[in-house]
Amino acid sequence: PGAGGPATIPLELCRVERPLIPATFCSQPLYGYDKLRKQLPWIMEDWLDYHIGHLGFVHAEIYDVDGSFETALEPWVRASSWRRTTVTYHRRWPARLSPQMEELSRDHPYCTETYAYAHCLTTHRALSRWVALLHAPDEYLLVRKNPSSGALLEVLELQESELPDDEVLPFLQVHSLSFARGGPGADE
Predict the structure, then answer these.
(1) 70-93: b or e for each residue (b if 16 or more CB lie within 10 Å)?
(2) Distance CA 147, CA 154 (A)
(3) Which of these, 59, 56, 65, lies nearest to 28 by C-alpha position?
(4) Residues 128, 22: Cα–Cα separation, whole Å
(5) Residue 166's pLDDT band (cuts 50, 70, 90)
(6) What is the pTM of this model?
(7) What is the pLDDT of residues 49-95, one digit of tens each?
(8) Please, are residues 69 and 166 in contact by the beta-carbon 8 Å criterion?
(9) DSSP one-letter string for 67-109
């Protein structure tokens, strides 16, 4: 192009030929599974079984700072084909970003949280219909008016069906109640 003329950028688009995943959730970068397991032996199994097996999420993206959740998640990653759900495990997430982030995460394990959320949301913007940031195994979503299996997807479909045809529902805000204790280095 000449001076002042429009620039042309070759762009090749490809169509994704698979249906959207109905609902995905993403964790914050988790760490210290051995200590957590001593306090709550079935915490990961209960958390995943509830959200995937009962509530209706079809996919989970689990981020791990130190690789300690690998043993707990291995059955979920392996069993994805017969469960009709999938779990993607990001082992040692900060190391995937940079050696400096890996080093910084040793003392500040949540310093890559925003990067994990951005990664998950960006990855799933064209793969999933709904994406939730479900921080950690001490956080549970609850559909109060409908405790039945698959209730989450029913609520999301109802919310969308009540919109005019030309409108989209960009997000839902849910109330939370924390039952967690302590934090990094806490005695409790």
Answers:
(1) eebbeebeeebeeeebbbbbbbbb
(2) 11
(3) 65
(4) 6
(5) confident
(6) 0.80
(7) 999 988 899 999 999 999 999 999 998 888 765 556 789 999 999 99
(8) no
(9) STTHHHHHHHHHTHHHHT-EEEEETTHHHHH-HHHHHHHHH-T
